[in-house]
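Write out this protein's structure.
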Amino acid sequence: MKKKIFSLSLIIVFLITSFFAQQKAVRADEVSDLQNKITEYEKQISDLQKQSNTLSQQISLMDSQIKVAALKISQTQAQIKTTEKEIATLSGKIVALDGSLDYLSKVLLSRVTETYKKGKIDAFVLLVSSKSFSDFITQYRYLQAVQFHDRQLLISMEQTRTNYDEQKQLKEKLQADLKVLQNKLISQKKQLDVQILDRKKLLTETKGKEAEYQKILEATRQELEAIQQIIAGKGSETEIGKIKEGERIASVISGASPCSTGTHLHFEVRENNDLRNPFSYLKNIGLTDQSGGDSHSASGSWNWPLNEPIFLNQGYGSNTSAIRSKIVWYNFHTGIDIVSNDRMVKSVKV
């Protein structure tokens, strides 16, 4: 009866494992289908990026990027669902195996002990009680066979216990994978929100008109050229005195200009002609972000070039909202764009 229980336990384990494998294959197909769609849209994005820069093409590009982001979210959600089900299946399997192994360990250990004792102690009694010598040989061989069979069962059970330990390790790995996927999902949702905001911002600033879009692009081209001329040292300057930290050095031009699509100060930091992130030098203040989510974590000691309150229009680097939205000509913002109610520009460091 005990042997039947052990065999039945192994059959149940096999059936659970088989079902688990089939379910895993189905879910893998679902994730694969989503990946195929993502690949298809990414190809569309690549093709759109190679085309001429018009508003309609830019909107199509952003729409495709939004679709890819949404598909990646669906893919991650499918992976999370799959992982959660795998963990639940493993949990049930582990609990069942744990109970079966404890029970069978006790039964088999008891049987092996008893048959071992009989084989060691009762051999003479067995001989005396046998009807003949051949009867004794038959009974003795039977006893040895029982002992051997029990030992084999115990070995098999220990192998099952090893599998049980491996499944516990697999569960722990899946739990770690689940945490990674959950964090990935949060990041992907944030990215989707930014892309939707970028599209909305582009349509707001261009008013959905091609002429406005081209006007913005041309203004950014002029801004880039003007900044490059300043950096190259073109033009003439005359020294009229020494400047102290915090003193007025200029005024922000109001409205649009060849260097700007609107009122703001472009603040840039260079060291040995190498660009630096201004936020690494400026103090952490109550900056109001109007950039659409650009990074703006200040950690330096410099005073700001404008009086507070200060508003951020665009951050530093290649991942600003304006660059992602393709409403600027350049692909790297060399400084930060800020504005204040006060147009006075001050020296930040001497």
